[in-house]
Amino acid sequence: MPHLLSKSKYIRGLQCDRALWLDVHEPRLARYTAEQMRRFDRGREFEYAFKDTFPDGIDLSAELKRNVDAYPELTTMYLEKEAEVDLFEAGFLYDDVLVLADVVRKNADGTLNIYEVKSGNVLSETYKRDAALQHYVISHCRSINKFCIVYNGENRFDIIDLTEELEEHHDEIARNIAAMKEILSHGEPDTPTGQHCLEPYACPYQHYCAQGVRQMSLFG
Ligand code: SF4
């Protein structure tokens, strides 16, 4: 089944309703700086290094590539077939939101350990928001034993179990998803630019929005 939202679109939607709309309807307008691309590459290298600590891991992206809507079915196939298995980029779909988990370990009792890999040096609130959405979706599909964030802290891989903390955000996430679906069912929002275009991430649609004259006035 085709998904409507992904983790990146949800995070974008928390920052700006217009950015969410553009991500879904006009993603070709996004422009990323060279520094942003380098940061993506550094993140991927750190993620691959952590995945190397699971030598028997099966990488679903090697087979499915960009066919993201096929990930949940293949994930289910492996989780049903194998008594224990490590999966990379396992896909889960719930509430029209598709998430791909960096590393999923299926335990002998059928529960899952999830590892979401972040290359930053500190455990930021943004990382937690991102993980909370993953937890919301996956916990409605499978039983989670623990949900951990892996980051580049004092040790090479600092692993922190956030399972209990993430469970507390489910109601808020359900409300956010409903609000985002409502936004996407209408035309492009006329949201003015402002400080939110830079935090927590530099929005890739700034050049586009700057063409529309409606700037947030500093003088009210
Ligand atoms: S540039 Fe600003 S107003 Fe435009 S989509 Fe991005 S965050 Fe929203």
Explain what you see.
This protein has 220 residues and is of the alpha/beta class. The protein has a single domain, classed as Lambda Exonuclease, Chain A (Alpha-Beta Complex), CATH 3.90.320. It contains 9 helices and 7 strands. The protein has helices spanning 7-15, 17-25, 34-51, 60-64, 71-81, 125-139, 163-167, 170-184, 206-211, and strands at residues 5-6, 58-59, 85-94, 97-106, 112-118, 144-151, 158-161. Strands 1, 2, 3, 4, 5, 6 and 7 form a 7-stranded mixed sheet that branches. β4 (97-106) and β5 form a beta hairpin. α1 packs antiparallel against α2 and α1 (7-15) crosses α6 (125-139). The longest helix has 18 residues, at 34-51. It starts with a strand and ends in a 9-residue tail after the last helix. Iron/sulfur cluster binds next to α2 and α9.
Distance between the termini: 45 Å
- Average pLDDT, all residues: 94
- Bound small-molecule species: iron/sulfur cluster
Number of helices in the DSSP assignment: 9
Uncertain runs with pLDDT below 50, 5 residues or more? 213-220
CATH class bucket: Alpha Beta
Rg calc: 18 Å
Helix amount, in percent? 40-55%
Order of helices and strands: EHHHEHHEEEHEEHHH
- SS-based class: alpha/beta
CATH architecture: Alpha-Beta Complex
The fraction of residues assigned to DSSP E strands is: 15-25%
Which outline best applies? globular
Count every beta strand, where a strand is a DSSP E run of 2 or more residues: 7
Biggest β-sheet: count, sense, barrel? 7 strands, mixed
> Could you say what the CATH topology is called?
Lambda Exonuclease, Chain A
User: How many structurally independent domains?
Assistant: 1
